[in-house]
Amino acid sequence: MAPVTPTSVLQASTWGPCCRCASPSTPGRSSPPPPGAPQCPPRPHSPPVLSPSIIPTAFLGTATIFTCFSLSALYARRRSFLYLGGFLLSGLTLMLLSSLVNSFMGSTWLFTANLYLGLMIMCGFVLFDTQLIIEKAESGDKDYIWHCVDLFLDFVNIFRELLMILGMTENKKKEKK
């Protein structure tokens, strides 16, 4: 079984150019060649084609997670989640080191653990960043553009993590069939 990587989870096309059938007029064909045309040899470990329904599912899941954690930070006592900064950055460092180790080992288990740990850390960053923005606004920092960028990056990271988790889950379901 090939290790699941972010590119194999999110790449949808299994067709690509090869030395025989790629020409300047067809750079990276995304559909099968017509009948009678030379066939591309199968790629080893071709990524499966994923269902397009995982994108709206990941988006709705991200919006729900983001809304819940933002509201939790808004209604919590003031400055109660600011202590999470050190733990979250330590978690990111742990993720970096485990990703580096996994690039040499190719462990599916470590990749999956890294995905779920990343999702938890990004949820923590929503709490932390929301309360940090509130504190900055209370102390006079009205730079709302950068505050929005912080929260947008949190949203994008949660979406990315959820998309990869849903893609992996779908791949496992297809393999069992």
Describe this structure in words.
The protein has 177 residues and is mainly α. About 6% of the residues have low confidence. It has a domain of 112 residues.
Please state the overall shape, judged from the principal axes of the Cα atoms.
elongated
SS summary, helix count: 5
| Rg of Cα set | 21 Å
Tell me how many strands there are: 0
Main beta-sheet annotation: none
Low-pLDDT segments = 7-16
Q: Mean pLDDT, rounded to whole units?
A: 82
Q: Could you state the order of secondary-structure elements as H and E? A: HHHHH
Q: Helix coverage percent of residues?
A: 55-70%
Q: Supply the helix-strand structural class.
A: mainly alpha
- Note the gap between the termini: 15 Å
- What portion of the residues fall into strands of 2 or more residues? under 5%
Keywords: Membrane, Transmembrane, Transmembrane helix
Pfam family, one: Bax1-I
Protein name: Transmembrane BAX inhibitor motif containing 6
InterPro entries: Bax_inhibitor_1-related
